[in-house]
Amino acid sequence: MAPGFAHLHVHSPFSFLDGASRIEELVRRAAELGQPALALTDHNNLSGAVRFTRAARAAGIKPILGVEITMAGGYHLTLLARNRQGYRNLCRLLTRAHLGSPRGRPSVTWEDLAAHREGLVALSGCRRGEVPALILKGRLAEAEAVARRLRDVFGREGFYLEIIPNLLPGDRALHRALADLGRALNLRLVATADVHYARKEEFHLHDLLTCIRTQTTVSAVHPERPLNAENYLKAAEELAALLPAECREALDQAGTLAEALEPALPEDEPLFPRFPVPPGESAEAMLRRLTWEGARRRYGRLSAALNERLEKELAVICRLGFTDYFLVLWDVVREARARGIRCAGRGSAADSVVAYCLEITEVDAFRRELLFERFLSAERAERPDIDLDIDARRRDELAAYLGRRYGEDKVAAVATYQTFQARSAVRDLGKALELPAAELDALAKRLPYFVPADGIRAARARVPELKNTPLPWERYERLLDFCAAAAGLPRHLGTHLGGLVVAREPLAGLVPLQWAAKGTVVAQFDKEDVEDLGLVKLDLLSLRALSAVEETLKALKASGRPVDYDRLPLNDRANFQMLRRAETVGVFQLESPAQRALQGRLGADDMEDLVASLALIRPGPIKGNMVEPFIARRRGEEPVSYPHPTLEPILKKTYGVVLFQEQVIAIATAIAGFSAGEADRLRRVMTHARSQAEMTAIGAEFVARAVERGVPLATAQAIFDMIAGYASYGFCEAHAAAFATTAYKTAYLLRHYPAHYLAALLTCQPMGFYPPWVLIGEARRRGVKVLPPDVNKSGAAYSVEEGAIRVSLRQVKGMEEKALKALLTARASGPFTSLADLKKRVNLPADVRENLILAGACASLDPNRRALLWEDKLGRAAPGVPDFSPAEKILFEWDLLGFSLSGHPLSCLRPTLERQGVLTIRAAKGLLPGREVKVAGLPIRPHRPPTRSGRTVAFFTMEDETGLIDVTVFEDVYQRYGHLLFGDAVGALLVCGRLEKRGNLASITALAIEELGGRPARIPVPS
Amino acid sequence: MVKTSGGLPAAFTWRGNTLTVAAVLEVWADTGEWWRGEPEKIFYRLTAAGGLYELYYEPSSGTWHLYKIYD
Fold first, then answer.
1. Residue A478's closest chain B neighbor by CA?
2. How much is the pLDDT for A623?
3. Quick one: closest CA in B to A432, which residue?
4. In chain B, what's the furthest Cα-to-Cα distance?
5. What does the angle CA A217 – CA A218 – CA A220 come to, to the nearest 5 degrees?
6. Is the CB of residue B28 less than 8 Å away from at least one CB of chain A?
7. What is the pLDDT of residue A689?
8. What distance in Å separates residue A171's CA from the closest CA in chain B?
C-alpha cells in the first residue's frame, strides 16, 4: 500500500503576497486531513522554513523543505530537499540566484542548478514551469527537450512531472501530454495542488493579495490573477476525483516521494565563528587574560570577592562555549574605540563583571551587586544576548568591519518580516477593492498605531478619532473582514536595524542571502529564526542619542571647551537640581511627560534614583500602581518595611519595593534556597505572564522550600505574593543602569552646555520624544538665543555662534544634499553679497531659493523677504515693496522650517485669546491648584499608555509662547474630544480644565477641548 | 434541464430537445467577478448531437445554464 498522500507544492505567506494562509493553518489543515507530511515551497525563499518545521513537528507531521525557484527566462521550477545536504544546496542556489541578479528579481541559471543538484528533487512546476508552459503553447518537442535536460540534471529518481488538477481550461490536454511525456522519457508523475491557501474560502484574500502584488485592482485583468478558487489544500480524495485515469498513480507517487524526503533543517551544529587568537594562546586563555587586564584597569586592586566573582563568570562563559562570542564583542568594541565611534553595551549583559572589564558595558556590575545569572546561567544554557548601542551615523562602519574580520561571506544582516498592520491593510486591500483613495487615506490616518489589522472594528467602538468622524463605515464592512484575515501576514522582507549574523562557515550554506534595500546583504531569516537555527546574532543598534553626544563633544572641542565625557562627575548638584525641576526635555530616556512628572516629585539626588526612574515609568509599574508607593517611600512619607529581614539588603535600594528582575532572583535564592537557574525560571514565569497553573506550581515550591529553611509559612506566602504582584512589570536592573548612565550624562550636557547639546539634538533629528519646534522652544526657555538659517552663516548642521544656536540650512524644506553642497561650495570662496550674486554663483532650484527667502535665510542679503521674492521672480530689484507682516512670516517659517523664529503661532492669536479669558500657560501655572483655567496651545505628542483599569487616559503637553504644561484627559473627556488629539490633522487647541500641582510640576486635567479656529491656529502641528 | 453521470453532464435539454452528451472535452472553474457577488461557475465544454457547446453549473444555486454554442 502506498504511503498517504502529501502536498509537495505549497505556498505560505512567505511567498509574499502569494499565500493567504498562515503556516500554522496550512499545517493544521494537513493534519486534519490525516496527511503524514507537508512541504513548503515558497517563491525563491526559505523564510518560512524554521517556523514551518516547528509547526509541523508540533502537529506530528513531517516537514519537507523546498522552494519554487525562478529560472532564467522567468520559468518556475519546484525543488524539494531530500536531506540536510539538499537544504544547504537550496540555500546556496537561492543565494546565487539573488546575489547574482538585481534586487527583487532572483534568477537561477542551468549551470547553478546542475552544480547544486545534490540532495534535491525537482518537480516540473505549475503552468509557469518551462515544461508545462511549452506544452500549453503546443511546442511539444521543446517541452520534451527541457524535460530531458531536467532529467539529465537530477536523474530519473530526482525529477518528476508535476500534475496539478486545478480545474483550469486546458488541464485535460496538459495532463494527457505530461502523461505521454512521462511514458516517453520514463519519468514519474506526481500530483500536487499548487497550494496558496488552506481552505477554498480564503481564495478571495489570495486574489486581493495578488492584486496588491501585481499593482492592479479587482476589476483589472492580469495574467497572474487566479481564475478560480482551486489552489487550496485538498484532501487526497478531492484530487483523485479531478485526475484523469491515466494520471491516478501521481497521487500515490506524491506519498511515496514525501516518505523518501527527510526533514532538512540543520540542528545542533556549532556555527559561531572562532575568534582568531594569537599563536600559542587558546580562546579561553585570551579571554581570561583580557578580563584580568581589564579588571586591573577598572578596579586597580582586586579584592578576593571580585576575584571570586570573575572566576565564577569566566567558568560559566567557558563551560557554555561562549568564549569566542565574548572575544568577538570585545573586538568590536575595541575597534569602535580605535575609530572614535561611541558605543555602549545595554541589556542584561550589564549584569556581567566580565563584560564590564572587557569594556563592552559601562555598568559596574560588581559594585552594584548585579546578578550574573540574570544574564547567563549554566543551568539555562541559553545563548547570551548582548546589545551594543552605537552612534547611529557610524553603525554601518562596524558592521563592515565584522565582514572584513570574519569574511564577507560569513556576515549578513538579519531580516524582519514586515507584516500587515491596520494602516497598511486598509491602504493596500482598500486600493485593491477600488475604494476611493481619499477615503482610504482618511481612514488609515485615523487608525492608531496600536490597533492591529484585526482590531479595527473593536477600535471603531472605543477610539474617538474613529468614532467621532463622518466616515461611511457601512461601505467598509468587507474591507474590514479582509483586513482581519490579512492581520499579521508577512507582506515583504525588511532588514533588521541592528541584528547581524556571523557564522563559522559561509552563510550561504545555512541560510539564503539576498540584497537589502540599502545594497547590503541580508539573510532570509529574522532574528528568532536565526537563533532557532543555532546561529548567533550580534545586535549593533543605531542610537541617535550617542550621535548627538558625539556632535556635542565635537562642537565643544572645536570651540576650545573640550569635555571628557567618560569622566563626567556623577554627582553634579546642578544637574540633579535641573532633574528635580523636571526640566528634562531633550534628556535621553527622561524627557517624556510621565518621566518629567516623576522627576518633579521624586527628588532625585543620585544615580540610583535615575536607575529606578527608568524602571518605574513603564507600563508594568504604572499598571501595577507601583509609582506612588515608591515616591512616597523615597520622600520619606511612607515607612519602608520588609516582610523578612533577609530581604533588607536586596530591597534597600528600592525602598522595599520589588522593581528589578534581579531582585526576584535574589529573593528566591535567599528565602527559598533556589539555585540561580531555578530562580531565573521563577523570574521568567512571572515576567512572561505564563499560565496560572504554572504560577501556582512554582509558588507552592517557593513556599515549601522557604518553610524548610525556617521561614514562617505566612511570611513565605506573603513574600511570594509580593514578588508575584510584580509579574508583568519586571525590568532588568542592568539595562536600567546602562541607560541611566547615558540619561545622566546627556542631562549633564544639557545643563552645562545647552546651546551645543540642543544644536546637536536638532542636527540628529529625528530622534527622542519631541519634534524640532519643541526643542527650539526649550532652547529659548533656557535663555539660548536661536538664530534663523542664513545662506551666509548656516552650515549643513546646526551650529553654535557666540552662545546662540544657528539653524542649519538642511532644516529648510526642499533643501536636498546636492543643492546644499553646491551652496556651501560656492560660499567657500566668499559670502554672498546679494540675491543676484547668490543666483549667479549657485544654481539652486527655484523652489529651494524661494523657500530660503521665505524662511528668512536670505536676511543677510536683504531683510525684506517680499522684496527679495519679487526680485527673484522679476530678475531685478523691487524697491518699495513692503515686507510681509509678522504673522505672515510666522506662517511661512512654520511651514518651511517646522518652527517659527519670528514668534510663536499662538502670539498672533493672543489679543483675541485674552479677550476670551484664555490665559497664557505661564499665567495659568502661577494660579492656585484646583482653579478652573482656559489655556490655548499646540499639542505635543498626545499618547494613551496602558492603564491598570483598562480605561483610556490620554496625556499630552501643550506649548504656547510662554511655556509648556502637561494635560491629562480622562476617559469621559477623551471619548468626547479624543478625535481632536489623535485625528489625522491635529491643530492648535483650547483646553478648559482644572489646574493641578504635584511637586514642582503644574498640570491641567482637561474638562473640555476645542479646536482653535482661524489662521494661524489651524496650522497643523508638525510631527 | 441537465442530467449528470459521475458528476459530469450526460444530457441536456435545449429548445425542447434533449441532447445526449457525446464527450466532455474540458472542465474548468471560474470565480468570475466575486467582488460584485458573482458566484463560482463550473464550465463544461462538450460535444452533443454533432455540435460543440459550453454549459456551466453554479454550485451556489444548483442551477445549470447553457453558456455558448459554437457554430
1. B35
2. 67
3. B35
4. 38
5. 70
6. yes
7. 56
8. 8
Domain that includes residue B55, residue range: 2-70
Arithmetic mean of pLDDT over chain A: 92
CA–CA separation, A94 and A79 (whole Å): 11
The helix/strand/coil state of A992 is strand
Number of domains in chain B: 1
DSSP codes of every residue in B44-71: EEEEETTEEEEEEEETTTTEEEEEEEE-
Is B33 within 8 Å of A219 when comparing Cβ atoms?
yes
Closest C-alpha to A1022, from A990, A989, A988, A991: A988
What one-letter code names the amino acid at A794? S
Measured between CA atoms, the residue of chain B closest to residue A172 is: B26
Q: Would you call B33 and A204 a contact, using CB atoms and an 8 Å cutoff?
A: no
Residue type, A722: M
Closest alpha carbon within chain B to A221: B33
Q: d(Cα A234, Cα A248) in Å, to the nearest integer?
A: 15
Q: What is the arithmetic mean of pLDDT over A527-544?
A: 90
Other beta carbons within 10 angstroms of residue A278's beta carbon come to: 8
Category of A185 on φ-ψ map: left (φ > 0), alpha (ψ -120 to 50) or beta = alpha
What is the percentage of chain A residues whose pLDDT exceeds 90? 78
Per CB-CB distance under 8 Å, the chain A contacts of B31 are 203, 207, 226-229
Q: What confidence score (pLDDT) does residue A1023 get?
A: 47
d(CA A91, CA A98): 11
Q: Which of B7, B28, B34 lies at the smallest CB-CB distance from A168?
A: B28
Whole-angstrom Cα Rg for chain A: 33
Q: Give the cell for residue A929.
A: 491648584
Q: Using the beta-carbon criterion (under 8 Å), do B29 and A433 form an inter-chain contact?
A: no
Per-residue pLDDT tens digits for A33-52: 999 999 999 999 999 999 99
Amino acid residing at A1000: N
* Residues of B with Cβ-Cβ distance to A204 under 8 angstroms: 34-35
Tell me the pLDDT tens digit for each residue of A387-424.
999 999 999 999 999 999 999 999 999 999 999 999 99
**pLDDT above 60: residue A881:** yes
Q: Do B35 and A433 touch (CB under 8 A)?
A: yes
The predicted structure's pLDDT at residue A1022: 53
Cell output for A231? 489552489
Q: A229, B31: Cβ pair inside 8 Å? A: yes
Q: What does the alpha-carbon distance between residue A553 and residue A720 come to, in Å, rounded to a whole number?
A: 48
pLDDT, tens digit, for every residue of A561-612?
A: 999 998 999 999 999 999 999 999 999 999 998 899 899 899 999 999 999 9
Question: For the residues A322-327, what does the mean pLDDT come to?
Answer: 93
